[in-house]
Each structure stands twice: as structure tokens, then as C-alpha cells.
Amino acid sequence: GKAKELIYTCATVKADEALKIGLVNKVVALESLMEEAKNMAKTIISNAPIAVRLCKDAINRGMQVDIDKAIEIEAEDFGKCFSTEDQKEGMEAFMEKRAKNFSNK
């Protein structure tokens, strides 16, 4: 596929092409790069820290194994996430239509 072609040929890709082929999620002007990065970071850190960590874990470990093991890892991490106080807080905040206040527990 395209990824192999880019790797094997050491080709460079312009921003618009990288966006078109899914190599990047967003293209921004250089002047707004830091603002965009900070906005994404703010969005990520507004989520439950445990959930973010477990998502990262499932992705990283899941990429190293076959699909059956990856599904097992995802289910395991989902179970860990679902048993946290932050999960309860997130659901309550959603139901009560209020801001979430995660405790990292």
C-alpha cells in the first residue's frame, strides 16, 4: 500500500497529500500550529486520565499482537476503566448535564 511505498522510496509528502491519504489528521498554518496543538492537548486532558492511559495502552499493546489478543487487551482495559470512580463521575456529569470533575481514581 501507500505506507510501504513511502517507506521504501523515502518519498516526501506535501501537507495536502498527507491529509488526503490519512497520514495526518489536520493541516494548519505554521502561525497557528502551537495554538492548535495546545487546543488538542486541552481536549485530551479534559478526559479522565485513567481512561486516556488505558486507551493508549490498548492501542500500543494491541498493535503488537494478533486480532484475538488485541480484542482481549481492549476488553481487559475497558473493564479496568469501567470500574473507576472517574467512569461513574463521567456518566453522572453527562446525565446531569454538568461539567465533569475527574479525580484520577
TrEMBL record:
Family the UniProt entry places it in: Belongs to the enoyl-CoA hydratase/isomerase family.
Reactions accelerated catalytically: a short-chain (3S)-3-hydroxyacyl-CoA = a short-chain (2E)-enoyl-CoA + H2O
Keywords carried by this UniProt record: Lyase
Species, as recorded: Clostridium perfringens
Single annotated GO MF: 3-hydroxyacyl-CoA dehydratase activity
Family matches, as InterPro entries: ClpP/crotonase-like_dom_sf, Enoyl-CoA_hydra/iso, Enoyl-CoA_hydra_C
Protein name, as recorded: short-chain-enoyl-CoA hydratase
Gene Ontology biological-process entries: fatty acid beta-oxidation
Metabolic or biological pathway: Lipid metabolism; butanoate metabolism
EC numbers for this chain: 4.2.1.150
Organism superkingdom: Bacteria
Pfam families per record: ECH_1
